[in-house]
Sequence to fold (149 residues):
Amino acid sequence: MTGKSTMPIIRKMTLKDLKPIIEIDSKILGAVRPGYWETKLINAEKNSPVSSLVAEIDGRPVGFLIGGASGWEYGVPESTGLIDAVGVDPEYQRRGIATLLFREMAANLKKVGVNRVTTFVTWSNWELLKFFNTVGFKMGKMVNLEYDI
Ligand SMILES: CC(C)(COP(=O)(O)OP(=O)(O)OC[C@H]1O[C@@H](n2cnc3c(N)ncnc32)[C@H](O)[C@@H]1OP(=O)(O)O)[C@@H](O)C(=O)NCCC(=O)NCCS
Fold:
C-alpha cells in the first residue's frame, strides 16, 4: 500500500510544522512566503484556546487548517470561530483531508462554546468556495468594503 492511500492522522499544529506548511503553500500558490506563515503560526498558537490542525500521512504533513475562536477579531463574538487558512498538498487533494481537518476543528470549537464558524474566501477561488459549500457553509452577514487610493 502506498502512503497516498493511507488515512491521515489529524493532530495539533506546532511551530515545527512551519517548514512543511510553507512547502504546501508554495505548491498551491507557486510562491514561497516564510514570514507570512511564521506570523500566522505564532499568532495561532498564542491567540486561540483551540489549536490549529495538521493532517499527517506517514509522518509527513500533507494538509493544515489554521483557525480558532475569534476573540472578537473583526468585531466577531467569541461564540464564533474563524477559519483563517486551509491548504492540502495538491498530490493529496480530493481524498477528504480538508473535510477531516474541518470536522475536527468544528468539534473542538464546539467544546469551547463556539456555535458558528466564519471564513473569508476570495471570490475567484472556486475550489475553496466549492469546498466550503460542500461542508455546509452558507453566505454570511459580513460585508467586504474596499476603497481605492
Ligand atoms: C480547497 C482545498 C482545501 C480542499 O482540500 P481537499 O482535501 O482536496 O478537500 P476534500 O477532499 O475534503 O473535498 C471535499 C469536497 O469539497 C469539494 N472540493 C474540494 N476541492 C475541490 C475542487 N478543486 N474543485 C471542486 N470541488 C472541490 C468537493 O465537493 C469535495 O468532495 P468530492 O471530492 O467528494 O467531490 C484544497 O483544494 C486546497 O488546498 N486548495 C487551495 C486552498 C488555498 O488557496 N489556500 C490558501 C493558501 S494555503
Summary: The CA atoms of residues 10 and 55 lie 5 Å apart. The two ends are 56 Å apart (CA to CA). The beta strands are 9-12, 53-57, 60-69, 80-88, 116-119.
